[in-house]
Amino acid sequence: MAVLAAGTAVLLPATAQASPTSVACDETALVTAVTAANAAGGGTVTLTPGCTYTLTAAHGSDGVNGPAGLPIITTPITFEGNANTLTRAGTAPAFRIAQVSSTGGITLKAVTLSGGHAAAAGHDNGGGVLNFGAVTLTGGALSGNAADGLGGALYSSGTPAAATFTSSTVQNNTAHQAGGIASVNGTLTITSSVVTANTAAVNPGGIYYVAGSATLNTSTVTANTPTNCTNSPSPVPGCIG
Length: 241
What we know:
Layout: E1 2-5, E2 8-11, H1 27-39, E3 43-46, E4 52-55, E5 76-88, E6 98-100, E7 105-114, E8 117-118, E9 129-131, E10 134-138, E11 141-143, E12 146-150, E13 154-157, E14 162-166, E15 169-171, E16 174-177, E17 181-184, E18 187-191, E19 194-196, E20 199-202, E21 207-210, E22 213-217, E23 220-222
Parallel strand pairs: 3-5, 4-5, 5-7, 6-9, 7-10, 7-11, 8-12, 9-13, 10-14, 11-15, 12-16, 13-17, 14-18, 15-19, 16-20, 17-21, 18-22, 19-23
Antiparallel strand pairs: 1-2
């Protein structure tokens, strides 16, 4: 702000803008931040740049769908990342990385989810993420996750459920069926992204889709085993093989 005195302009310094505080690079700090965001009705969890957050135990369960590494996401939460990875420790019991409730939403920016494993008997869908609300992945990846059921990387189900991928990668995930993505009665939108090298025992290996809607925009679904989308209950528009 400029103040004129006796014809002379005096410049006063602008008020400093507070920068968001990054969550310390450890499991406890991350779980605490997610719990706080849920309690606040949603918010942004800013991750320490370059940090790999390793989950050694499950911190979320709705009592039905099996364990999740993070607390159940019940509100809209954005993970503001910068070359970050959220992963399950190799020695930890089986659990998926995240579960999103019908009231929740998870937005992952420049974040990779890896190492999740959905293995609970009868509730073994969604190795990386089990979604009943909204999942948005921007400039990130779902990689190296596994499900004993459907959707090694992601299982998204229900009328409110929406999964949106932009400039992201779904790669090297495994499942009984749909090593990559499974979307059931929800909305699936994939833009400028790649779904590749995912593996399933029962085809399709890449994308499994039934009812709802599915849209591929300038995206590639390739090199998935045994098929990319063939034998999906509903055809995936623009997906070949």
